[in-house]
Design brief:
The complex is a heterodimer of chains A (411) and B (390). Chain A is an alpha/beta fold and 411 residues long. Chain A folds into two domains: 251 residues, no CATH class; 117 residues, 3-Layer(aba) Sandwich (abc type-2 transporter like fold). Helix content of chain A is 65%, strand content 8%. Chain A has a four-stranded mixed β-sheet with strand order 2-1-3-4, with helices on both faces. In chain A, helix 3 links the parallel strand 1 and strand 2. In chain A, helix 1 crosses helix 9, helix 3 crosses helix 6 and helix 13 packs antiparallel against helix 14. Chain B is of the alpha/beta class and 390 residues long. Chain B has two domains: 246 residues, no CATH class; 119 residues, 3-Layer(aba) Sandwich (abc type-2 transporter like fold). Chain B is built from 16 helices and five strands. In chain B, strands 2-1-3-4 form a four-stranded mixed β-sheet, sandwiched between helices. Classes of the chains: A alpha/beta (411), B alpha/beta (390).
C-alpha cells in the first residue's frame, strides 16, 4: 500500500518535472526566435496602438458638399446656411449647374450635391410641397449618411418653421406642439458619439490576441519541426518529451504566460490610453479572458499541427483575420449572418471572445449576461486541448512507425 | 531570342513548383480566393441588414401605441422580437446581445397626445455595432415622425383639407435622394469590392516575397539564376509572369462573377475594370518583390507584406475615411497600394468618372509596380551569397 502511494507520488513528480522542463525549453526557444517573439510581443504591443490611432478621431465631420441653387431665394439660402452650420456637412462649393457639381464629385472635392430647383420658394409660398434633390456619392457609407441625414434633418426643421408661421399660434408652447406633437428622445447607448473606433476597436483588440497567439505558436512549431532532423513536431528521442499531454501542457504554460500579459494589456491598458469606452470591472474581465486565452492557445496548437513550413502559418492566419472580424458580428449584425457562417463561426474562439468582450467592456455586462459565451469558450478550450493532445500523440505515433530519416523533406 | 527561351524555361520551372511541388501556392492562388469571394458575397447577400431584433416597452398599451409598434414591426429593417415589462429588463436583454434597440412608450402617451400636452417617447439603440445601431435608429426615427404625422393628418382631414394640402402641411420640404451607383445602399457592393481585392493583394504580395524566400531557404536560388545566365531581370520576369497570369485569371473570374452574375454596379465599363486589374496585380507583386529586396529574409519580408497589406485594409479609407484621420496618417495613406486601388475603383469603375480626375492614384500604382527596379541587384546578391537562417 505504502509502496503504491509512493510510486503514484513519484510518477506525479516526474510528470510535473517533465511539464516544467518543456515549459522552460519552449520559453528558451521563443525568446531566441525573433520571428516568434515578433508575433508574441511586438504585434500585441504595437498593433493596437496603431489601430487606435487610425480610428482615434472616431467620426467624420464637415463632409464637403456642393450646392446648385437654382432658386436664389431667401428660403433656399436659409436651407443652405442651415446645412452648412451642422457639424457633419460643409458647403464647400456653389456650382452653376449639375454638370459642374458632378465634375467636383469626380475630382473627389465633394461627396454630395444639394440641388435646389428654381420653383423651390414659389412652391412653398403657394402652399405646395417643395423638393430638394440630394445626390450622394455612395463610395463612402459614412459620408453618404452625413450628406443625406443632414439634408433630411434640415428639411424637417425648415418645414417645421414654416408650419409654425402658418398656424398663427399665440404662445411658444402652441408653436412647439405644432412643430412636434409627439416628442421623441433619441438615445444612442454604450457609444453615444457613434464613434467608429469605439465600435470596431474592442473587436480588433480581441482578434489581435487570437491571431498573435496562433501565429506565434504556429511559427515556433514550424521552427521546431524544421530544426528536427526527422521533420517532427515533438523530438522523439529527447528525455522529457514522453506523453503528448505533457508536451501540450508544457507549451501551454509558456504561451499562457505571454498570453495573459498580452490579454491584460489589450483589455485594460489600450482602451484607457485612447479613452475608448471601458465599463468592465476586473473580475468580469478575468472570468471572460481566462477561457478565451486558453481557447486561443489550444486553438493555435491545433492550427500549428497543420503547417509544414514555419512561414505557411502566416499565409493561413493572416488571410482569415478579416473574415473572422466579420463573423464576430461587429461590422455586420449577428442577426443578419447567414446560418451557414454562424456555424463556421463556432469553430473560432475569437467569435465568442469578441462578443463577450464588447458586452463586458463597452456595454458593462455582468458575468451572468455573458454566461453563454463563457460556457462556449470553456468548451472550445477543452475540445481544442483534447484535439491538440490527440494530434500530438498521432504525430508521435506516425513518427515511430516511419523509421527515422525516411520522411524526406522535398522542395 | 536567348532571353526569350530562358524566360520560358524559368516560367515553366515556376509553373512546376506551383502545380506540383508546394501546394500552398494552389491554396493561396485559387482555393482561398474562391472561399473568400464565396464568404463575402454570401455573407452580405442581403445587402442591407434586415429584420434586426428590437424590443418594445409599452406602458401605454393603447390602440395608438400598439399601432406604432405594428408599424415598427412592418419596417424592412426591424422586427419586434420582445415585449418587455420594464426598461431595466430591456437594457439587460440588450447587454446580452439579443436586441439592438428598444422603444419606450410611457404610460399616458395617447392621452397626452390627444389633449395636446406633447408626450415624449424614447428610443434607445446600441452603437456597439454601428450598422445595426444606425439602421435601427433610422426606423425608430421614422416611427416617431409617423406618430406625429398621424395626429396632424387626422386634425387636418377633419378640417376638410385635401390630400395635397395635407401632404404639404405635414412635410413642406421633402428630400429626393439619389444614391448614385448604389441605389439600394447595399453593403455588399461597398464592402465586398474592397475586402476581396484587398486580401487578394495581400496574397499577391505575400506569395511574391514567399517564392523568392523559398528559393533562398532551400538554396535553389543559384540554380534559378543560372537558368537566366545570371541575368536577374530575365529571372524575375520569368518567375513572376506565371504568378501574374494566374492571379489575373483568378481576379477576372471574380469580376465576371460579381459584375455579370451578381450585377454589381460598374458604370465605368469593361475597360476601366481591366485597366484597374492589371494595375492591381502588377503593383502588388511589385510591392512583394520590393519588400523582399529590402530585407532579403523570408520571414521578415513576409511579415512586412502581411502587416502592410492588412493595415492597408484600414488605411484605404473605405470604412473610416482617410479625411477623418490625423494628418500624419493621411499622408501615410499614400504608401498603401490598396488605397490607390480603392480610389481608382470608386472613381472609375463604380461611378464611371474619367480616369484623368484621379490620375495621381494611377501613377502611384505604376510606381509600386516599378519599385523592384531599385532592389534587383540586392536580390541577386542575396540569392548568390546569403544563407537561410531559420
Amino acid at each position: 500500500m505504502q509502496c503504491s502511494t509512493m510510486s503514484i507520488f513519484r510518477k506525479l513528480k516526474e510528470h510535473v518535472t517533465d511539464v516544467l522542463y518543456i515549459w522552460w525549453q519552449e520559453m528558451r526557444l521563443v525568446v531566441k526566435d525573433e520571428g516568434v517573439l515578433m508575433f508574441l510581443v511586438v504585434v500585441p504591443l504595437g498593433y493596437p496602438v496603431l489601430y487606435s490611432w487610425i480610428y482615434n478621431n472616431e467620426s467624420l465631420h464637415e463632409t464637403p458638399v456642393a450646392v446648385v441653387d437654382h432658386s436664389h431665394s431667401a428660403l433656399s439660402r436659409q436651407f443652405i446656411h442651415d446645412c452648412d452650420a451642422t457639424p457633419d456637412v460643409d458647403v464647400k462649393y456653389y456650382a452653376q449647374d449639375l454638370d459642374e457639381a458632378r465634375s467636383l464629385v469626380s475630382r473627389q472635392l465633394v461627396r454630395g450635391i444639394y440641388l435646389i430647383p428654381s420653383d423651390f420658394a414659389s412652391r412653398i409660398s403657394r402652399g405646395e410641397q417643395a423638393v430638394v434633390s440630394v445626390y450622394c456619392d455612395m463610395s463612402l457609407m459614412l459620408a453618404y449618411k452625413a450628406v443625406y441625414q443632414t439634408a433630411m434633418v434640415e428639411a424637417g426643421r425648415l418645414g417645421a418653421g414654416l408650419s409654425i408661421k402658418k398656424a398663427g399660434n399665440f404662445s411658444a408652447h402652441e408653436d412647439a406642439i405644432t412643430a412636434q406633437p409627439l416628442l421623441v428622445d433619441d438615445v444612442a447607448m454604450f457609444n453615444p458619439s457613434g464613434g467608429y473606433g469605439s465600435c470596431v476597436l474592442p473587436a480588433v483588440l480581441m482578434l489581435i490576441l487570437q491571431q498573435a497567439l496562433a501565429l506565434g505558436i504556429g511559427m515556433s512549431a514550424g521552427t521546431a519541426r524544421e530544426r528536427n532532423r526527422n521533420g517532427l513536431l515533438i523530438p522523439d528521442d529527447a528525455p522529457h518529451y514522453h506523453g503528448a499531454y505533457r508536451v501540450v501542457c508544457g507549451k501551454a504554460l509558456c504561451y499562457g504566460m505571454m498570453g495573459t500579459v498580452a490579454a491584460a494589456y489589450l483589455s485594460m491598458a489600450v482602451p484607457r490610453m485612447f479613452s475608448f469606452p471601458q465599463l468592465a470591472d476586473g473580475w468580469t474581465l478575468f472570468v471572460m479572458l481566462l477561457p478565451y486565452t486558453l481557447a486561443c492557445i489550444f486553438f493555435g496548437m491545433c492550427v500549428s499541427s497543420l503547417v509544414r513550413y514555419r512561414e505557411n502559418v502566416m499565409l493561413l492566419m493572416v488571410f482569415v483575420s478579416v473574415p473572422l472580424l466579420f463573423l464576430t458580428g461587429v461590422s455586420w449584425p449577428q442577426s443578419s449572418i447567414p446560418g451557414m457562417w454562424q456555424g463556421v463561426s463556432w469553430l473560432f474562439p475569437s467569435t465568442f471572445g469578441v462578443r463577450a468582450f464588447i458586452r463586458v467592456n463597452s456595454m458593462g455586462a455582468s458575468v451572468s449576461q455573458i454566461l453563454p459565451e463563457i460556457r462556449i469558450l470553456w468548451i472550445q478550450a477543452a475540445v481544442y486541448l483534447g484535439l491538440a493532445c490527440v494530434v500530438y500523440s498521432y504525430k508521435k505515433y506516425m513518427a515511430r512507425r516511419h523509421s527515422p530519416s525516411s520522411e524526406n523533406q522535398s522542395n | 531570342m536567348k532571353y526569350l527561351s530562358q524566360f520560358f524555361d524559368i516560367a515553366l520551372r515556376e509553373l512546376d513548383i506551383i502545380i506540383r511541388k508546394n501546394h500552398i501556392y494552389g491554396f493561396c492562388m485559387v482555393v482561398f480566393p474562391v472561399l473568400l469571394v464565396f464568404f463575402f458575397t454570401t455573407m452580405l447577400d442581403d445587402g442591407v441588414p434586415q429584420d434586426l431584433p428590437l424590443g418594445v416597452v409599452d406602458h401605454d398599451n393603447s390602440a395608438t401605441s400598439r399601432a406604432l409598434v405594428r408599424n415598427l414591426d412592418a419596417m424592412q429593417n426591424s422586427r419586434v422580437m420582445y415585449h418587455f415589462a420594464s426598461v431595466t429588463e430591456a437594457r439587460c436583454t440588450m447587454q446580452e446581445g439579443k436586441v439592438f434597440a428598444y422603444l419606450y412608450i410611457p404610460d399616458g402617451t395617447t392621452a397626452k397626445l390627444l389633449s395636446g400636452r406633447q408626450p415624449r417617447i424614447s428610443y434607445y439603440y446600441t452603437m456597439t455595432c454601428m450598422t445595426a445601431g444606425s439602421m435601427a435608429s433610422k426606423d425608430l426615427k421614422t416611427i416617431g415622425v409617423l406618430g406625429s404625422a398621424a395626429l396632424k393628418q387626422a386634425t387636418l382631414s377633419a378640417k376638410g383639407a385635401s390630400k395635397e394640402q395635407i401632404k404639404a402641411a405635414l412635410q413642406p420640404v421633402t428630400i429626393d435622394a439619389h444614391m448614385i451607383a448604389n441605389p439600394q445602399g447595399s453593403y455588399n457592393y461597398s464592402l465586398t469590392t474592397v475586402f476581396v481585392p484587398g486580401i487578394l493583394m495581400l496574397f499577391m504580395a505575400l506569395l511574391s516575397a514567399y517564392t523568392l524566400g523559398m528559393e533562398m531557404k532551400f538554396d535553389t536560388g543559384k540554380e534559378w539564376l543560372a537558368r537566366a545566365d545570371g541575368n536577374i531581370v530575365v529571372a524575375i520576369l520569368g518567375k513572376y509572369v506565371v504568378h501574374t497570369l494566374v492571379f489575373l485569371l483568378v481576379i477576372f473570374s471574380y469580376q465576371y462573377y460579381i459584375f455579370n452574375v451578381l450585377h454589381f454596379p460598374h458604370q465605368g465599363g469593361v475597360w476601366s475594370i481591366v485597366r484597374l486589374t492589371l494595375l492591381q496585380v502588377a503593383s502588388s507583386i511589385g510591392f512583394g518583390i520590393f519588400a523582399f529586396g529590402l530585407m532579403p529574409s523570408l520571414r521578415m519580408s513576409m511579415s512586412i507584406c502581411s502587416r502592410w497589406m492588412v493595415l492597408g485594409i484600414s488605411m484605404c479609407g473605405s470604412a473610416f475615411p482617410v479625411a477623418g484621420m490625423d494628418p500624419p496618417l493621411q499622408a501615410m495613406s499614400w504608401l498603401f497600394p490598396l488605397r490607390h486601388y480603392w480610389m481608382l475603383y470608386q472613381a472609375t469603375v463604380l461611378n464611371g468618372f474619367p480616369v484623368i480626375d484621379v490620375w495621381f492614384h494611377l501613377v502611384a500604382l505604376v510606381a509600386f509596380m516599378l519599385l523592384p527596379w531599385f532592389v534587383v541587384g540586392k536580390i541577386k546578391n542575396a540569392m548568390l551569397n546569403y544563407v537561410y537562417i531559420p
